[in-house]
């Protein structure tokens, strides 16, 4: 773990308490059986396009079908969103793509989430409204308040899954919230403490400069953003109480649909295509191997393929034919 400075004792105690809460809530959450709103994927793809990347290619590489990129909001398997972040990082060859996305995003790219935050009287009230709505956009990750004192408010970005994609998603979430707090209040809001599970990058100055605090910790047990109560309670110049109430009522009726059955076939095809294109690799992979790669049980994988009108043996044979070409 790396830190540029020593935290105040009270902030350190708050951080440790928040770490314990996140660990307790995440225990046993290794399987990736959830789903995410396609709006989260579209946010990453919009940022990737702005950075000069091909969003269709990026989506395909993450196992997201082209039909998810347009049309009405739906959902995608929970594996796809963190994969997008990993691919974004690799294409850009930068460990700071989460910051890049937050710096350049346009108001409204996250739909109702943006407007729930912007129209609330204070950023803190917007956080709570957006947090409630966010829980309806995903059942595979969360952003929630885990501790409050008269001085601080602690937010946790939590997912049962590990890996670089989840780390980048947390980086982007905290960067986005910090940018929103600054935009809404018109002041240079600076978090008291930021803790990240990711290892310290070789050049970490962009992270400390973005957040405006030297108290950024890497290699932590949990991804936490600790904001000063005074900043959380700042009035927002974008506030619109009447519109905020209408938006909250609308958000309360939002339901995350299950991903279309075909989405799981797209994900399996992507996994096959990521393997070495040789006979030995495709001969040795089993249903259990694929389920492990997707972080679901073999039985769940069989059910999801059957729901799409296909089977493991059929998809394996199809992959072998593609490799033979």
UniProtKB/TrEMBL annotation:
Coiled coil feature spans: none
One GO MF term: DNA-binding transcription factor activity
HTH-type transcriptional regulator AraC-type N-terminal domain span: 52-235
Domain of life: Bacteria
Name of this protein: AraC family transcriptional regulator
Keywords for the protein's UniProt record, in alphabetical order: DNA-binding
One GO CC term, this protein: cytosol
Stored Pfam families: Arabinose_bd (PF12625)
UniProt cross-references to InterPro entries, sorted A to Z: AraC-type_N
């Amino acid at each position: 773990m790396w830190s540029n400075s020593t935290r105040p004792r009270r902030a350190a105690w708050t951080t440790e308490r928040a770490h314990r809460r996140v660990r307790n809530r995440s225990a046993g959450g290794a399987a990736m059986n959830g789903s995410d709103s396609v709006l989260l994927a579209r946010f990453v793809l919009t940022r990737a396009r702005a950075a000069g990347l091909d969003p269709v290619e990026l989506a395909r590489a993450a196992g997201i079908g082209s039909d998810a990129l347009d049309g009405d909001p739906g959902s995608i398997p929970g594996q796809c969103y963190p994969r997008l972040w990993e691919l974004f990082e690799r294409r850009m060859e930068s460990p700071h793509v989460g910051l890049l996305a937050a710096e350049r995003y346009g108001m409204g790219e996250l739909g109702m989430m943006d407007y729930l935050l912007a129209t609330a009287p204070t950023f803190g009230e917007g956080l709570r409204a957006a947090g409630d709505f966010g829980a309806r956009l995903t059942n595979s990750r969360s952003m929630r308040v885990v501790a409050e004192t008269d001085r601080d408010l602690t937010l946790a970005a939590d997912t049962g899954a590990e890996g670089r994609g989840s780390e980048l998603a947390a980086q982007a979430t905290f960067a986005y919230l910090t940018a929103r707090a600054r935009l809404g209040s018109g002041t240079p809001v600076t978090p008291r403490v930021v803790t990240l599970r990711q290892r310290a990058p070789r050049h970490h100055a962009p992270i400390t400069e973005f957040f405006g605090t030297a108290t950024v910790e890497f290699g932590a047990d949990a991804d936490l953003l600790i904001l000063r109560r005074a900043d959380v309670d700042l009035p927002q110049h974008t506030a619109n109480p009447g519109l905020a109430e209408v938006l909250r009522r609308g958000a309360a009726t939002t339901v995350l649909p299950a991903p279309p059955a075909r989405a799981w076939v797209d994900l399996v095809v992507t996994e096959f295509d990521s393997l070495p294109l040789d006979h030995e690799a495709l001969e040795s992979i089993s249903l259990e191997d694929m389920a492990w790669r997707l972080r679901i049980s073999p039985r769940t994988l069989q059910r999801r393929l059957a729901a799409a009108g296909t089977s493991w043996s059929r998809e394996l044979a199809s992959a072998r034919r593609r490799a033979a070409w």
